[in-house]
Amino acid sequence: MSKSAWRQDLLDHVQAVIRDDIARGRYFGAVIKVARAGKIGLEVAIGDEGGPGTKPLSLDSVFSIFSTTKAITNVLAFRAVERGELMLTTKVSDVIKEFSGGIRERITVFDLLTHSSGLPAVFTPKAGMNIDQLPLIIEAICANVHAACEPQERVDYSPLVNHALLGEMVRRVDSKGRRYRDIAQQDLFDPLKMSSSAIGRPERLKARHVVPVFGANAPSQHPSSRVPGINGAFEDPEAEMPWVGAVCSVPDLFRFAEMLRQGGELDGARVLSPAILELATRNWTGEKPNELYKAVANRAGWRPYPAYMGLGFAIRGPGLHHAIYGTLCSPETFGNYGAGSALFWVDPVREITFAFLSAGVMGQAQNIERFQRICDIVTSAAT
């Protein structure tokens, strides 16, 4: 049977599961798009932005994608490596001179991408500061964040620091002297025709933006210097946060993921080389656990499981354990996720591309189980 074939009954069941989740109050709504070998099997918006009586979600809804932003920064860093502006072995302190002293001077681009830098997993580099301005974040990191161990000693998912540094490195080595947000727009969003994507939430996308609702599930606050509220940075048109600050629609996120599935090219636009994607989608962290998610597993009563980090991408890997991409996809499956609501992945063996964004942020353990269930159904639907 063709690799583009789907079981319609299971694709229908995916929608039923999402509707049941919404009815149980687990989240407000979701947009999902799934394809196999480029053939779309499912593309649908279900539910509302904030519960009954609020605006229904649509395929054009624009979401804050939180840490899925890191995938954008990964790709921009890969492009800098391909052009010789950075190397995977480049030390952070060689580009950001003020990031100096002790262990920090041994941290490389490779260490940042694999979340093995030895830097602590902090959500803000300085208590009480606004997080919308990249220069101030870098200044605070250099002043306050110091390595807790040697690089590659452990895997400790970095919510903010690693990708703030990567984004700043990309900016500083850019031959055109552009801002990070402009590099993302011109080198990634424009070539891939991701017209509903941006760094920061621009005015042109305001009417379609689903304002994040965290409830009790916010890992931290995200204040802006320009927009009021504890999470104002997600509504700030000028916010520049390479670790958490992109907005995107599901069709755009799908195009990004499909570019990765097709070896770095989509519709004639070459973004990355197959060579760097081959390197990026290997497991570089062995069987070491992800310390942040080991804590999540322990709180949930699960057995901790390996991090399986590629270069910025999370790899499915072998073994049977809780897995945000599900337990049935191939071990080579890779992707990224964000704050209890956002996920994309690519299964290069089964040629599946998956993109999902939801309204309403779930707790970490509940989110992993939600996606594991949905992703296993999707993989089972690929015949």
Q: Describe it for me?
A:
The protein is of the alpha+beta class and 383 residues long. It has a domain at 8-60 and 206-216 and 239-381: DD-peptidase/beta-lactamase superfamily (Beta-lactamase), CATH 3.40.710.10. The chain has helices at residues 8-23, 69-82, 92-95, 109-113, 134-144, 161-173, 180-189, 250-261, 274-280, 291-300, 364-381; strands at residues 29-36, 39-47, 62-64, 198-199, 209-210, 246-249, 265-266, 269-270, 314-315, 334-338, 342-347, 352-359. A six-stranded antiparallel β-sheet has the order 2-1-12-11-10-9, with helices on both faces. A hairpin with a 4-residue loop joins strand 11 and strand 12.
What's the short story on this structure?
With 383 residues, this protein is an alpha+beta fold. It contains 11 helices and 12 strands.
CATH-assigned fold name of the domain at 8-60 and 206-216 and 239-381: Beta-lactamase
Low-confidence stretches: none
Strand content: 5-15%
One letter per element, helices H and strands E, the order comes to HEEEHHHHHHEEEHEEHHEEEEH
Helical residue percent band: 25-40%
Number of strands: 12
Average predicted confidence as pLDDT:
96
For the biggest β-sheet, the strand order reads: 2-1-12-11-10-9
Radius of gyration: 19 Å
The secondary-structure class comes to: alpha+beta
Secondary-structure arrangement, i.e. CATH architecture of the domain at 8-60 and 206-216 and 239-381: 3-Layer(aba) Sandwich
Superfamily (CATH H level) name of the domain at 8-60 and 206-216 and 239-381: DD-peptidase/beta-lactamase superfamily
Q: What separation lies between the terminal Cα atoms?
A: 7 Å
Shape: globular
CATH class of the domain at 8-60 and 206-216 and 239-381: Alpha Beta
Number of helices: 11
| Major sheet summary line | 6 strands, antiparallel
